[in-house]
Amino acid sequence: MGRSPCCEKAHTNKGAWTKEEDDRLIAYIKAHGEGCWRSLPKAAGLLRCGKSCRLRWINYLRPDLKRGNFTQHEDDLIIKLHSLLGNRWSLIAGRLPGRTDNEIKNYWNTHIKRKLLSRGIDPTTHRPITDVSSSAKPVATTISFASNSALEDQEDRKKPIINNFSPPKDEGFLDLNLDLRISPPPYPTAVTMKNEGRNSLCFFCSLGFENSKNCSCGNGKIIASSDSNGNGYDFLGLKSCVLDCRSLEIK
DNA sequence: AATCAAGGCAACCGCATTTAG
DNA sequence: ACTAAATGCGGTTGCCTTGAT
Hints:
Blueprint: H1 19-32, H2 40-44, H3 50-61, H4 72-85, H5 89-94, H6 101-118, H7 132-136, H8 154-158, H9 190-195, H10 203-206, E1 234-235, E2 238-239
Antiparallel strand pairs: 1-2
The protein binds a DNA duplex through helix 3 and helix 6.
């Protein structure tokens, strides 16, 4: 029946961390490295749950964290990534060096949401709030990477989406549907974009990945849309025929 | 100066996923 | 292959700070 607690709650501190606890945790991780969070509190002499130690380290004590206000560029990047990934905070954080998922999540909920609402944009769908027609029915243009909530019909939720991908026109990436693709969508190369008379930023550059080897607009590096073996292109760091968003993480 | 409300953020909780035995 | 433990993640809560009255 359920799982056993990760630690003995009766003997663990809760609430805000003290300076002394922080120092102990930092000293222990400096000496032994990260990992084995369950046994860490005891070994470090902390009366804390392992999960609590991990959270404290990842969100506040890590030396590579960037504290302070978000820049405009970071704002824009978060909005773009959220439109693509939804509430996948860890994936979004992976594209913002020095920022944590918790920090970005809080920032989204307290600042960006309000900013978008004030601009008349729905922070969930990234569409204009007045655009009733788009929300009236579940069209295949809804961004719903994380869930099938855009599919109103329960039966539809059980079906994998296998229809072909329509490549984004201009910068309409908000119209991507990334739900449960069986095969990778055909990504427009620099050549096809040129043939179409499109000189706008490619998908990756638009997301702020100018240095991505996947850049196909000339703003970054031009690459072929498939590898030498003719396999699928590297979609956001995913070289596969199965779309697994976890590969977006920066290891 | 005191009180209240809203905003902001750190931390916790519970579920999902991954890993190890 | 199966199961339990460990870890990771996203949602939520609660406390502290700040600004308005």
